[in-house]
Amino acid sequence: MKTWRVAAGSGIEGLKTQTEPPAALGPTSVRVRLRAATLNYRDLMVLKGWYPVSGTGPLVPGSDGAGDVIETGAAVTRFKVGDRVTTCFFPDWIEGRMSLPRIATALGAGGAGTLAEEVVLDERSLVATPAHLDYAQAASLTCAGVTAWNALFETGGLKPGQTVLLLGTGGVSIWALQLARAAGVRAIITSSSDAKLERARSLGADALINYTKNPEWSGEVRKLTGGEGVDVVLEVGGEKTAQQSLASVRMQGTVVIIGGVSGFGGAINPRSLIVGATRVQGVYVGSRQMHEDLARFVSGSKIAPVVDKVFAFGEAPEAYRHFEAGRHFGKVGVALV
Ligand SMILES: NC(=O)c1ccc[n+]([C@@H]2O[C@H](COP(=O)([O-])OP(=O)(O)OC[C@H]3O[C@@H](n4cnc5c(N)ncnc54)[C@H](OP(=O)(O)O)[C@@H]3O)[C@@H](O)[C@H]2O)c1
């Protein structure tokens, strides 16, 4: 089977394709013929050496994968040959609270990865794919979809009629926009591009802010919410956006800390959190239980996750470059057919 491998920190040019023997199948394992993967900012971080990985040799990158079950171990009961399945970001975090052992084996960081024609995983680390999704759409549930679900509903506790602020039009934010609208949550979204904002409008965004033209955008968010601020912010920007996000949230609202596309520095004045009784809470993707809850919601609401462009297997480096340039809206895929 063909794989892509890369030594962490060796950059996009370090990606090499090769042919490898199939991995052995244990009694509770499932062999999946992957059909599509999608990229996350974190996959870029692995290539740049900014993300912790296990082992020292070249790894198979990628957490997001969707495909077909082609072989099952003798004791497998959850799936059968022919089932369409999607990978779980943390194979060992099934439900309940996070713990170090449960998150130690994230896909694409030294163990199994999805930029390959096949992956072998324990049956408990896979989720049935919603029937209406194609493979690239399904792959995007694994990281961006589950993160958006966790941030909006598990951590953010959003209810219909409340308002969320989403930053930028990347994978997590566009997933969150689609989920929020399907759940009756009002969405304000920012972007550096008016054209991307118009695409967000067509997905149901209620209000649009160009953060390049309006760098103090929290003032606009306040105006749009009658001076009160939003109930929840999904903070993916980090260093350059955190202060604006804190200034955008209502009293006793929640800023969910997800990422740092503008860097991870900066400082928070503790007093600003006290005065607004603001809750600031990090999230790290989510459990299989959250992935299953998301899949059920997606099946019921018939959400079609936005996959901006799908590259061929041999074009994986181009897919990373397209992603790195920030030209995408929603997700970027790699076909593994
Ligand atoms: N904690 C977790 O579990 C978790 C899970 C997934 C992702 N993340 C993190 O979340 C972040 C986003 O991930 P992603 O995969 O969605 O990335 P992505 O698809 O690359 O999206 C990034 C988007 O952020 C926007 N952006 C860039 N600079 C910005 C700024 N200064 N202010 C506001 N928006 C800005 C851009 O939108 P426009 O082009 O519209 O301007 C860009 O498209 C990353 O830091 C990633 O590591 C964390």
Structure description:
The chain has 337 residues and is α/β, with parallel strands linked by helices. It has two domains: 170 residues, Medium-chain alcohol dehydrogenases, catalytic domain (Quinone Oxidoreductase, Chain A, domain 1), CATH 3.90.180; 138 residues, Rossmann fold. Helix 4 packs across helix 5. The protein is globular. The site of NADP nicotinamide-adenine-dinucleotide phosphate has 31 residues, from helix 1, helix 4, helix 5 and strand 9.
Strand content: 15-25%
Overall residue-averaged pLDDT value: 97
The CATH C-level name of the largest domain is Alpha Beta
Number of helices: 11
Number of strands: 15
List the ions, cofactors and other small molecules found in this model: NADP nicotinamide-adenine-dinucleotide phosphate
Structural class: alpha/beta
Radius of gyration (Å): 20 Å
- What's the architecture of the largest domain, going by CATH? Alpha-Beta Complex
Biggest sheet character: 7 strands, mixed
Poorly predicted tracts of residues: none
- How helical, in percent, are the residues? 25-40%
- Structural domains: how many: 2
N-to-C SSE string, H for helix and E for strand: EEEHEEHEEHHEHEHEHEHEHEHEHE
Query: What is the molecular shape?
Result: globular
